[in-house]
Amino acid sequence: MVNKGFPKFGMSQAGSYVATLKNYNLPDFILVLIAKECKSELLERGRIDDRLQSMNDKALELLHKVFVGCEDDGAGKYAQYRFYAYVSSMYHKCEVLVNETIPGISGTNYKMPVAVKNNGMYIAVAHNKGTGNPVNKKETIKFYEIVDDIKKGEHGTMLYDAIYGSSVGFRGDALVELENLSKSRTHDVENKLNFKTANFENNIYSVTKC
Question: What are phi and psi of 201, to 5 degrees?
Answer without folding.
Answer: -135, 145
